[in-house]
Amino acid sequence: MVKIGNIELPDFPLLLAPMEDVSDPPFRALCKENGADVVYTEFISSEGLIRDAAKSVMKLDIYEKERPVGIQIFGANLDSMLRSVEIVEKTKPDIIDINFGCPVKKVVSKGAGAGILKDVDLMVSLTEAMVKHTNLPITVKTRLGWDHDSIRIVEVAERLQDVGCKAISIHGRTRAQMYKGSADWAPISEVKNNQRMHIPVFGNGDVDTPEKAMEMRDRYGLDGCMIGRAAIGYPWFFNEVKHYFKTGEYLEVPTIAQRTEMARRHLQMAIDWKGPILGVFETRRHYTNYFKGIPHFKEHRMKMVTSDDAKDVFAAFDEVEAKFGDTRIPQIG
Ligand SMILES: Cc1cc2nc3c(=O)[nH]c(=O)nc-3n(C[C@H](O)[C@H](O)[C@H](O)COP(=O)(O)O)c2cc1C
Hints:
Blueprint: E1 2-4, E2 7-9, E3 14-16, H1 25-33, E4 38-40, E5 44-45, H2 46-51, H3 54-58, E6 69-74, H4 78-90, E7 95-100, H5 105-108, H6 120-133, E8 138-143, H7 153-162, E9 167-171, H8 186-193, E10 201-204, H9 210-218, E11 224-227, H10 237-247, H11 256-283, H12 287-290, H13 297-306, H14 310-324
Parallel strand pairs: 3-4, 3-11, 4-6, 5-6, 6-7, 7-8, 8-9, 9-10, 10-11
Antiparallel strand pairs: 1-2
Helix pairs in contact: 1-11, 4-6, 7-8, 9-10, 11-14, 13-14
This protein binds flavin mononucleotide (FMN).
C-alpha cells in the first residue's frame, strides 16, 4: 500500500497529472471513473487566488466523486503562497500540491514553477512554511533540475521530505529540456533508492503504454506513475494499465461508439460546469484523441471544433458514431 499522509492508495497508484486547461473537474471525474487513483487540478496562481481572480477561483471547484483530489498551486512569494493555502483549504481538497516544475517563461521569470530550481533553499523553505501552515498533506511536483549540469534531485527530494513534504512527483526532464527529447527515469530511480527516502516517489514523463508504466514499477522501482498526455481524450488509459498489470494482457480497446459516448458525456459535463460557451470551447482539445485513427477524421474534426453551438458538436459525434460505431482502433502499443 502507498500512503500520502493518511490517504491510503493501492500499490503502484496511477495519478492524473495536473494539466492547464485539461485537468478540469469533468475530465478528472472521467479519469477517476476509469481507474485514476489520485487526480490533480491544473495549476492555480497563488497571486490570482489572493486577488480573487475569477479564473483562478473557478479552478478550485471539485466534485465529491473525484476524490482523492490534489489542488496544485504555484508562486514564489511566501506570503502569497501561505494566503492561498488558506483559500484552498476552504474548498476541502485532500492534498495541496506545489508546482515547482512549470517551464514556461512567464512563470519561471517570476521565480515560480521550475524557476525555483535555481534556488533550492527557497524551494525548501517555501515547502516547510506551507507544511506548517496546514493540516492537509503537501506534495510537490517538480523536474530533474534546471538544466543537465545542475541536476541535484536526490538531495532536493530528501530535503523536501525532511521538511514534511508527503510525496514527490518527478517529471524526468530538466527545465532546459521543456518537452523535448525523452524523459529520463534513471535519476528518479536514484531518488527512490536513497535509503533515507520514505515518502512515495512518483515517476512522470512519457508513459503512454502499459509496458512503460510497468517498466517504471519493475525496472525503476518507483512507487507510482503520474500520467498526463496519454490520458487527454483517452481516460481509458488508466484501466488499460491496471488490466495489463493484473493479467499481462491488453484490455480490449473501446469501440468508436464507446469513444463517442465518452466525448458526449465529457462535453455535457463541461457545459454543465462552465456554461455552453466555455464548455464547447475548452473540450475541443480532447477530440483528436477521442477519435484518433478514424479515416478522414479531419472533416469531422472541423465540424467539432469550428462551431460554437453544442448542438453542432453533438451532431458531429452522431455522424462519426453512425459511420464507425463498431470499429475498434488501438490507441496504444
Ligand atoms: C497541456 C499541458 C498542460 C500542463 N499543465 C501543467 C500544470 O498545470 N501543472 C504541472 O505541474 N504540470 C503541467 N503539465 C506537465 C504535466 O503535468 C506532465 O508533467 C508532463 O506532461 C509530462 O507527463 P506526460 O508525458 O505523461 O504528459 C502540463 C502538460 C501539458 C501537456
